[in-house]
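Consider the following assembly input.
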Amino acid sequence: MSDEKKFAGYICTGCGIGERLDSSQLEMIATREGKMQSCKQHEMLCSSEGVQMIRDDISSEGASHIMIAACSRRAKVEAFNFPEVAMTRANLREGVIWVRPDAPEHQETTQEMADDYIRMACAELRSLKLPHASGEQSLNKTILVVGGGITGMTAALESAAAGYPVHIVEKQGALGGQAAGYAKAIPTRSPYKEPRDTGVAEMIAAIEASGLITVHLNSTVAKTAGAPGRFNVDIATESGAVSNETFGAIIQATGFKLYDPSNLQQYGYSSSPDIVTNAELEKLVKAAAGGPVKRPSDGKEVKAVAFVQNVGQSSSEEGQLSYHSGIGDLIAIKQAMYFKDQNSDCDTTILFNNLRTPGAAGEDFYRAGQEKMITFSKAQVSEVVPGDSLEVKFQDLILDEETSMQADLVVLDVGMMPNSGPDPYAVPIVIDEKAEAASETPRAPTVTVDSILNLDYRQGTDLPHLKNGFTDSHFICFPYETRRTGIYAAGPLRRPMDMRQAQDDAAGAAMKAIQAAENAGKGMAAHPRAGDLSFPSFRMDGCTQCKRCTVECPFGAINEDEKGYPLFNESRCRRCGTCMGACPVRVISFENYSVESVNQQIKNVEVPEEFDEKPRILVLACENDAYPALDQAGMNGVEINPWARVIPVRCLGSVSLSWITDSLNSGYDGIVLMGCAKGDDYQCHFVRGSAMAHERMDKVGDTLSSLNLEPERVVVYEVAITDIERAPKLINDMAETVEKIGLSPFKF
Amino acid sequence: MSDLNSAMTERYHNSFLKEVEANVEEGEWVKMCMQCGVCAGSCPLGNAWEHTPQKLFMMIRAGKREAVLSSDAMWMCTSCYNCIARCPRGLPITHIMHGLAHYAKRLGLVPKNQPTAQFSQIFWDNLMKKGRVNELKLGLAIYFKDGFGQGIKNALANKQLGQNMMKAKRMNAMEFFGGHSIKDTGGLQKMIKKAQEIEDAKIQGNS
């Protein structure tokens, strides 16, 4: 293909587009205003003939830029897949005819909408380039697994089973992690009645037998530099030796620590050796090797044991965990069974408040415990009094009375705390004083805080946290993703979980890590723009070294060089464009998405003169949730106001303030910005993009007042993909607002 | 009977739950209660009870032997079966209630003047005499259970009901003299006696 640009437009007249719209007028606009060198109509462009027509033009006519005016860019993506050319799509179906009523009195405004979408698509196309991979990528199939517990071992075995070499870095002198100290595990298979073997020994044997897995014991990660496909990791052993390895992707499986109940005086943990945590009991049981469990103080056989549940968890008290680990009650049932199976006359009492037995095994395992005559008492334990026989004082919540029981051994159900390393954003970059003051929720105790990954990133040494020290990822939509591309979190550092869940987690993270390594090898983005070849380029001569891009990148993709210029790492980038939206001097752009490409669309909408009384409303909709919601609205026949012109953006974080000021200056009457939910329960596919956009738009009021415009002309919303009725309503509301406050005075 | 009570106390000194499992009809279900309280909320007479089934089961597990067996709660059950129908764990709650009442009766721990217990005893004695329920004698026995004066008051209060039953031939004044009977009353009494012996032996064996 020659370097010469050749623009070709295609207008589909199928799906009712031809009947509802004047396609010859659209064709004329595409060629005259849109400067398409050719423009063809087809009655069903997505058919094999239609697609073949486009293909022929690309191969024989040398079309390098194509504009397809048909359905939404989210529809027929398999048919309209021409990776060899730059392409735009004008959304005439979901965006125009399906959201407008089919009546003669609406014909004029509907046609105007379609005309504008053709103008916008052509204008965008002229500012696009076909993206090419940067060439800096390299394929490295080796996966680094940090942590050799159940999660880490599973991740390693799963990766190796897929044919990828693995290195495990384990701090301790042996594999197995916490589970190595357990006598047995919660059952994972029907009938869920008996504790099962932990499987640790088998896993260690499988790892030793695998030719693809290298294990570094007594080792830590001293330094991690680079990016997906070329992570450069220093592995330090206890002896001081450091070896250097390169990896394609990293899985962090550093597990959890248990909450230390020493400071909770009422449970007397520090005052008697016979008051133990659930993990310590596992060791006692393991030491008993099938015989009766002896209590630590005097070696007496335990004949009565009390399990105190929910110790220091789901609490609003300072220094306790605000969340519940979820699996403590299943653990208590399992541990009570150790005693019952050994001696059915042993008194085992589980003092719970809210018994939680989640998962497939939960209810059946609870029943099995009841069948073995474990006593379950709904109780609030007030005190454990040390002594030869321990006295557990509690309020019986069913019988509503203060009472107590005697036990030889008391087991405290303490919660899991993530072992996730220090939070790089522990000191917030943007200090929101209002939010700080409003959130008086006590801080959970943090696990200390030696760095685990020692990332050589501008934005900190470890994975960012979301809440309570757990690593940041979206727990439903993209659970293993972290905010550091190519580094995946698995197991209890994401959330409290049991061994089976950790193993599922590990398998998922292994698949993601393999995908990341492979994509990095091709120069393609990882989730959510998987496969995207474009990447931001920086026009350094215009850069003012303000560092906003390096600070605001949610994924730590941009370092700084010694002069303070941005130093971009392509394969860490998710292609959200948050840097582009952040840059005050507009020097950051993608080949197929830039300040210019959107600005051209904004400028090419025909803004009617004031006396036409036809307002124009600019809608910048996030392509991940808001734009699909609007498409869905079209499919459901929900009406959208004819003054609206919708432009999809990669993320609200990529919105440049210049788009707002330019569109206001050129006579738009209202602007609606639609991004995903932000905050702790965010749905933003780029984690921080939507939040960044909201912060930036806080300041847009100043711009409006300097232009002497009403502040309600610009609104920012959080829109979910399910807001099929709401998203159109927000646009229609803006039309009403404009009607109320009048048209913009900036029409020429 | 109190001998049996002390024997049982001795035998199951620490675990009332085990005692209930061994001796109360359907008692082995008590441990499976998960304390959700649906039975307590479903009982149409629940608020008239001293203890709801949920509480009784918890008391059994907490070893409150005297409180459970001398409770009048299980005597108040009308066998509407709402609790059984709704129990998510499938416990035969109604049957357990009757089992507990029966066991309390056996141990002589029924609260004094518990009306349901009194009625049950009168009904049983009435039935055992002739193998048929003598409506007239049953009614009179109940009216006069709290003394002669109270009996007259009860009878007068229900005069109209009695007359209507006679008119409708549901009750016969001649029943006062003997009354109708099954063919072989002696045979029935023998059968019941044998059954009682078997059950006594079983309970004694457990004690």
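DSSP finds 20 helices and 31 strands in chain A. Ask yourself how this observation constrains the way the partners meet.
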